[in-house]
Amino acid sequence: MTTSIRQAVDSDLPTVVELWNAAQKWLSEIGQDQWQYPVKTDGICSAIADKTCWLVQDGVGSVLATVTLDDYADPKLWTPDDVPTDAAYLHRLVVRSGARGEGLGSAILDWASKEAMRAGKTWVRLDAWTNNTKLHDYYRHMGFEAVRVVNAGGVQSGALFQRLAGVTRGEGPAISYRSAGETGVYETAANTAIKELKAGDSVSG
Q1: Contact 126, 112 (CB under 8 A)
Q2: CB contact at 8 A, 124 and 112
Q3: Global pTM?
Q4: For 147-158, how does the pLDDT look when each residue is reduced to its tens digit (9 = 90+)?
Q5: How confident is the model over 64-103, as pLDDT tens digits?
Q6: Which of 87, 59, 60 is nearest to 74 (CA)?
Q7: What domains does the chain contain, in order, with CATH numbers?
Q8: Engineered SS bond to 172: which of 15, 31, 107, 114, CB 3.0-4.6 Å?
Q9: CA–CA dist 68, 92 (Å, integer)
């Protein structure tokens, strides 16, 4: 599978909403109460404006997934003892149903890990839906450690996880990308490294 990742723009809002709504429907069908509320378009619009919302697409430009990666640590979840500024935070990771089973989620997590490392962060962090234990198992399998579960204040997505920035599993398709004016390829097949195409710049996996 040939994939690339790019920042979402204003015209991509319907695509991100469609992916989110499809995930919401699927979660309902499997008996999960996660995301069973109207999509919060204001949050997506803000992420697009902040250039923190990303789209993964195949070789012909069809969007396969979306993810938001930013510096926002929800104060209801992350305390000063967690040193919130020391991490990048993952939100709204959605893979289209037809693209599941190819390791794309793992490849996106590797991309986020490398982006966090490039930004000088120590951790990649996320909050998962509190009662979605299968999702918790998935993130543990992806190398994330459970931090704690926050139940106070009506929090529904309070299972907190983190993984060291720069750590990768090397699974799934390679993701070509554009970041901070550079173009390269994350080679996420097993036993390969990140190879920057910018002359003179290389990062080992």
Answers
A1: no
A2: yes
A3: 0.85
A4: 999 998 889 999
A5: 999 999 999 999 999 999 999 999 999 999 999 888 888 9
A6: 87
A7: 3-196 (3.40.630.30)
A8: 107
A9: 6
